[in-house]
Structures
1.
Amino acid sequence: MLKQHLIRKKIKIAFANSVKNPPVIVFTAGKVGSSTVYSSLKNALPQSSLFHLHFLSEKGIEQAKLFFKRNNAKIPDHLIIAGFLSRKIRKQFDHVNWKIITLVRDPIAQELSSVYQMADRVNSDLFSKDSKSALLEQIQYLKNRFSCFEETNNSIINWFDRELKSCFGIDVYKYAFNHKDGYQIISQNNVKVLIIRLESMDTCFNRAIKQFLKIDEPIIQLNSNFADQKWYNAQYKFVKNNLAITKRVCDKYYTTRYVQHFYTRDMIQALIEKWVG
């Protein structure tokens, strides 16, 4: 109860002047580089109100909480914060100037990273072993997983509709993405959204953030949440370097509206060549 009280107080303070100086919400699907963005902003703008969330829809929050409960894990703070912010959005949407930063990433790379991020909770028996035979089993598991891809029920591919659009009314697909710059700023009524393509972040991050937040100070990109700092690093690297996905499966991912919108034909071809074996 004390934690919820403190979180509620933090949100109240953050939104005290939400018209002239609204908080910034780093709001993304998982494993797209959002920790890097959040850490960089927190370091550069210590006085600003920042939130880092993956869900704000009621359904998304409840499904995430259910996942942690089923795995006998503690509900993380970001889901508690999301619950309070979700209610604020529904009750005070028109009275706040919302600032959202989100990212996109190659969905195959994103899903692979997500699998290992959750490896201690999902299929832990398989992913806790690092013998050669276990690594080959992991590769086969992932091949089977990727081959079962369906656009209509994939959480990564549909995140923008299920979360950003349902909560803030922004349909990103109505706005042409700037493939050359690697980022895009959308302004719609009282909502402003910055979309960064992860594969372009090293070259566009500073410029995109400064333009979006209208600041002059340089923003140092602090890389965060590196896979090589994780317990599964060796397994992840081996599998990533040895996983071969059929072109048929790649085509299922890369013909989706999500990929076609944020990546050029040449980029998509490069991604296919990266994964096909």
2.
Amino acid sequence: MPVPPLPALTDRLVGPADGPVGRPLLAALGRLTSPLAADDYLCLIDPLLSARHPTGRVTAVRSEGPRAATLEIRPGRGWSGHRAGQYLPVGVELDGVRHWRTYSLTCPPGGGRYGALTITVQEEPRGTVSPHLVRRTPPGSAVRLGPAQGEFVLPEPPPARMLMVTAGSGITPVMGMLRTLALRPSPAPADVFLLHCAPGPGDCLFRAELADLAARLPWLRLHLRYTRTVGRLTAEHIAVACPDWRARETWACGPAGLLDTLEGHWAAASAAERLHVERFRLVPLDAPDAGASGGRMRPRPPPCCTSVRRRVS
């Protein structure tokens, strides 16, 4: 059951921390609480009041199939926003140790219902954090938040024609883009062709919502490919499904084999500059610095725009 958010205590008392009342009042409190900061005391009242250590509260958990769940997270005062397609470092404390993982934000900028952020987590059976988030995180739980990161984003304005190629959980950053475009007023924000692969219908994240979006949005065309039945996606399949793929700005996210195939095919067609790829790399993730913009690495220079996420389960 979703938990409707309540206004932050300090916002009700003094207004926003960066407002004309909140800023000088917190500065005065800081002088009184020195050597500690006022923020150190506020987070004892409610972790969401901390600006130095951004925190969110889980307000709802929705099943997305047998091994996945969407978490709605109401961010506290330290949250600084995101762009469609970016990912979120999430800190979870297990047995006294905080573990950081990154998950794509699937909500539009500004959040979804009640301004909540959403992430969709696919459970890795041998993982540490993903099973905890999917199966053992009830509404009311607090999680630490890092700053939104990544350059695999929806540009402003969006290009007139877009192709999105995803597989498995690679649909999650693209879902944030689609939900953002769906909120735009008429006329159609773009001509979007989405080609998504999953092992079968029961494994397809957001299957019902994707079908609904495609049915009511004239600018969105959806092609679902179930690989358990028809095999893995190839460049030839893309050419048949979307004949004008060379003319489209393309975003792709999924397994390494698929992305390698796409990069080679786009390069051979002299269209590499139109391909934007996000890869997941299994390496340890350090605790994020709220004041830093790190987390993105380039394993190779352009022509392909490649955003590499550090990801563990």
3.
Amino acid sequence: MQLRLPAINTLLDSWLNEDIGRGDLTVFPIDNKIYCAHWITKQNGIFCGGPIIKQLFQRLDPLVEVDIHIQEGEAFKNNQKILDLKGPRSSLLSGERTSLNIGMHLSGIATHTNKLVNELEGTGVFLSDTRKTTPGLRLIEKYAIRCGGGINHRMGLDDAAMLKENHIAWSEGIQESIQVLRKNIPWTTKIIVEAETIQQAKEAVIYGADGVLLDEMTPDQLKQLVPRLRDLAKQNSLQRQSDQIVLEASGIKTTDLKRYAATGIDLISTSAPITQSSWVDFSMRFNTTTTPEE
């Protein structure tokens, strides 16, 4: 995922403006001598957000140098120094809170994601996110999912055509909706159908969906349904570009991941890493000298 997009710069500016506003009043007693600071972890976890933190400080003040000692998606231990900063003291102070907020939030998502991904290790099933993200933060929250070992579902409504419960209820049905979509979207765009019943799932496959989201079905139901859907996909391959279909389980409890992974599905989508994760705890310590502390 590219992190040097105009959209990222817009986010950085909005975050800095939110906290600094017309100017940081607390820096008046602080001179602009070059000093150093560093970040210390206060628990174990998975790191995420380094490039964003570096861009944030450089956008605040080009004189600030950020030296990150850990890779994106790498595990850290409690009381580990993960980055050094060097720059004007006033700039380090002004960027402290915003940078920590972003680093702790994204690392919290990556940590939670990694925990769930580890439960699926060896199953061949992927863990995917959803569009249930914090408004304005989708790009970086989905980036954190990848740092934790998960994969991204569609970024937005323009990424893939997904027929959900209300689309089906307010349209002429699954068959008609898929046919209309095929006539109006690029051939490279995938069509996904959210199925709440076994009949809806079968219709989606028969009429050419590229993927089916099997919503709130039990593992026992899926064990019987998944092989039937794969057979249907092969029998109706002329309706899509491939006889392969992506089958996704959603609306499940994360405590049941292993049971769902044993049903033959391809991926499990969940909002849990974003909606249920806690921030990890980092602290920014200011050095008493102009050189980084060992």
4.
Amino acid sequence: MQNITSEIVFQRKFISSFFLRVNSKFNGEIRIVISVIKRENNAPKIYDIIEFSLFKDLEESIKESNRADICTGYFNLRGWDIISDEVEQLKGEVISEDGNRVKRFCRLLIGMQRLPEEELRLKFFGKAEVMDNSKATELRKLTAHRFKKQLQTGLPENEGELAVKKLLKQLKDGRVVVKLQVKEPLHAKLYITHKDHHIHKHTCFLGSSNLTYSGLKGQGELNIDVAEQDAANKLNKWFEDRWNDRWCVDITNDLIDVIENSWAADKIHPPYHIYLKMAYHLSMEAQTGIREYTVPEPFASILLIFRRKPFRQPPSN
């Protein structure tokens, strides 16, 4: 009788230990399945940031994923901290890009916005010029300049500096890759999280929210989640087509350069270099005046050529 009791106790311990191991191993899988069931039963979900928060569900979806793809019409460098911690925890996934196998964590696609004067030109003179390598390079440099001006706007603050430094580190580590669509204006806002689940591979959030604090947490936005996999696969293909487009240029190194040459850089500039930069900018008006100064006509006509040169007089026709 004692042997039978011991056997029963042993079996119970074995079964209990087995299920504990199974539960630990597949805990993430079970959580994803439960999330799928909830989404399917309540799909689609509308986020107006009044009744439901897009950021809360997006944050949770990123935490459950291996990698994330984001398309935004506007990107604020100082606002990166809104998802920087979640991006840091992504495991990454090896995917195919232009025939190459690369490991990606977070891909960020930014739309190229037209300036007001360009909109007017298109209205009155028709379609813009054909895109080529020279034009693409020009637009890439223009975008880098805009990001530089973005950091120069307003006073540096601790939260913004911390956010930009996090972004710089993730750019350098290859955890974040940024591309710019230069072929045409892109104003779409799409968030895709990718899981290694055979049923629920992609979760998409589509709507009006840019990757900014006001876009994800402020009011006045309208978004919807896409849990149904056929639609999610089509949105994922839409993103892949634009990411791999010839005129979607990588600006990761440009952003690294902009940040490293700003007040948010990790390196400390010597006081003498700061003094030289201040002196340079303060003397710009004087330098411009010297370059543009011309000798008045009454004197220019009677002075010999070698006497005009000190006054920066352009040669006569």
